[in-house]
Design brief:
32% helix, 9 strands, globular, two-stranded antiparallel sheet, alpha/beta
Length: 219
């Protein structure tokens, strides 16, 4: 915890890290979740973990889902994010327990909504998702998963079965003290609108997407 100078020059504590703020029931079309809300004092973001059932401490089925307005809310076919979120929520309900950590501030792999849209415009002109970010002078992936690990620690989770195709998420959780007992693939059938994007994720970002081999006919 750091300090900041307040009124009359007195130093007042400034919170750091992640703080649980609220725990509220959240009935959804998938089932009855608990929405556990957190404040990330380091970045100022408001975060939420959707918890289903009695989760325990070990090998908890878990998804770290990066915010994607276009995919999650608008049903964009440019990516598979919305379908991954839907599949993850259904999976934890089918499991009987689990957590979906919804990470705000991760739009466009951390570059923000407007920058993501600019990158999408460049992709429409022929650049891939990596080239587009770099052309804008932005990092390929600026996401940080420390807050997700902090939320899992607060929920009492020691190890997870991680629903992800991204090896960076696994490595980040391990680095922050969460054991990954298993990586559970979250593979979504590609379409003509996202096949190039998905192939770039596999070839340039090392995402594990073996199912793309079966759809060589897509352009």
């Amino acid at each position: 915890m750091t300090e900041k100078v307040g009124v009359l020059g007195k130093k007042t504590p400034q919170r750091t890290g992640v703080e649980r703020v609220v725990n509220a029931p959240l009935p959804t079309v998938y089932g009855e979740f608990r929405a556990v809300g957190y404040l990330d004092h380091d970045r100022g973001d408001e975060q939420v973990a959707l918890v289903y059932g009695e989760i325990g401490t070990d090998e908890v089925l878990t998804r770290l889902h990066s915010e994607c307005l276009t995919g999650d809310a608008f049903g964009s076919r440019h990516c598979e994010c919305g379908e991954q979120l839907d599949s993850a929520l259904r999976a934890v309900v089918a499991e009987g327990s689990g957590i979906v950590v919804y990470l705000r501030g991760h739009e466009g792999r951390g570059i923000g909504l407007l920058a993501k849209l600019r990158a999408m415009a460049l992709q429409a002109e022929g650049l891939d998702t990596v080239e587009a970010n770099l052309a804008l002078g932005l990092p390929v992936d600026a996401r940080d998963y420390g807050v997700a690990a902090g939320m899992l620690h607060d929920l009492g989770v020691r190890s997870v079965r991680l629903m992800s195709n991204n090896p960076d998420k696994r490595a980040a959780l391990v680095r922050h003290g969460i054991e990954v007992a298993e990586t559970v693939p979250l593979l979504i059938a590609p379409c003509e609108s996202n096949i190039t994007y998905l192939r770039t994720k596999r070839e340039r970002l090392d995402h594990h997407l073996p199912h793309l081999d079966a759809v060589a006919h897509l352009s």
